């Protein structure tokens, strides 16, 4: 691409560095900003700068936070004896959006994946084990993606926690709402048969 | 979406205002920036701010520019008697990328489209007519999208320029390279037959 302006070119290159944004999309976004009111673009740039400078990670659950402890961990209305273990912050937002969970979280920051060079030491596992030892955690709910790496991570943490007598569960795997039985893979269908639920419980939900 | 951080929420909302970026994509982009080095994000924000504050439009051709006159208009190696009329800056970049055109441009900033409330007065048509009157323009090449609105715009400008004896052409419309005849619409096929090219010229190209 040939640009008549180096300011334009620099801005396009910055946007094109974002994941999933190619040069053409970057150009479209930048030309949109050029057309906008200067004050709006000012607010865009400053919000991004402020976000990166001031954002923190919760010291307790590693979730993104404005303060040292996030709004979920500092909320006394939530059940602190229940910890939902997730891979990343997006998963926290997804579960919060269901409005069905009232416990706290622990963000691992990834899952164990030797092929990608991610071992247990790169994740926030030590912190989780410290939490279980020091706080009165009674149940750990694993909400990891149903992959080999997810299962490995669950297995590893569960082994580490064997000395502690806490309840360890994982979210149910089965046929998604609106999904079709005939297109489900055997693994999912087999698991959903194994973990079948009494109908009265199912209906109450 | 429920956010545990207002800084995160603000940044996601800013990104989600960009065209074609929804909340989920915005979140992905912002979380990517959170993971990046602070200096890289600083450079991102500052480049965007600088771009919007300092960018100018060429006083001659309305292209985006770092100075009052763009690098194409101020280049004495280019043929200033030839002006290619385009709808927007993206089209200038597309034509420049072919490296086949050595004239100058004129960016209309849109096309005449009464249904969208765009009349000739909102476009840089007056400036183009002034250019033709004052500068030694010999050929005007219209490179507008082949739509009714594009054709209307060509017709309008051509009428306005009738007193001046200049060459007015439009880029060829026909079967695209790699396209298939049987899938071409009748209009395109009919035009490509009408405007057939002697084979020797075609081969030389």
Task: Name the features.
205 residues; Dna Topoisomerase Vi A Subunit, Chain: A, domain 2; 12% strand; 4-stranded parallel β-sheet; Helicase, Ruva Protein, domain 3; two-stranded antiparallel sheet; homodimer
Describe this structure in words.
With 205 residues, chain A is an alpha/beta fold. Among the domains of chain A are: 6-54, RecR Domain 1 (Helicase, Ruva Protein, domain 3), CATH 1.10.8; 78-171, Dna Topoisomerase Vi A Subunit, Chain: A, domain 2, CATH 3.40.1360.10. The first copy, chain A, has helices spanning 6-16, 23-35, 38-54, 89-98, 125-134, 148-160, 186-194, 199-204, and strands at residues 56-57, 64-65, 79-86, 103-107, 139-142, 167-170. In chain A, helix 4 links the parallel strand 3 and strand 4 (103-107). The longest helix of chain A is centred in the N-terminal third of the chain and has 17 residues, at 38-54. Chain A is globular, with a radius of gyration of 22 Å. At the A-B interface, helix 1, helix 2, helix 3, strand 2 and helix 4 of A face helix 1, helix 2, helix 3, strand 2 and helix 4 of B.
């Amino acid at each position: 691409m040939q640009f008549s302006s180096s300011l334009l070119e620099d801005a396009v290159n910055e946007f094109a560095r974002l994941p999933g944004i190619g040069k053409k999309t970057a150009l479209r976004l930048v030309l949109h900003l050029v057309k906008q009111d200067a004050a709006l673009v000012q607010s865009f740039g400053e919000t991004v700068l402020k976000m990166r400078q001031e954002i923190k990670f919760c010291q307790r659950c590693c979730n993104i936070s404005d303060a040292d402890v996030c709004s979920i961990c500092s909320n006394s209305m939530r059940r602190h004896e229940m910890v939902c273990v997730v891979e990343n912050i997006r998963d926290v937002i997804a579960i919060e959006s269901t409005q069905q969970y009232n416990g706290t979280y622990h963000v691992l920051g990834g899952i164990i994946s030797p092929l990608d060079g991610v071992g247990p030491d790169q994740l926030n596992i030590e912190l989780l084990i410290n939490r279980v030892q020091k706080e009165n955690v009674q149940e750990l709910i694993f909400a990891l993606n149903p992959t080999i790496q997810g299962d490995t991570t669950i297995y590893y943490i569960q082994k580490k926690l064997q000395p502690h007598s806490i309840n360890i569960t994982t979210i149910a795997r089965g046929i998604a709402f609106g999904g079709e039985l005939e297109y489900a893979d055997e693994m999912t269908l087999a698991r959903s048969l194994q973990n079948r639920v009494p109908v009265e419980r199912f209906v109450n939900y």
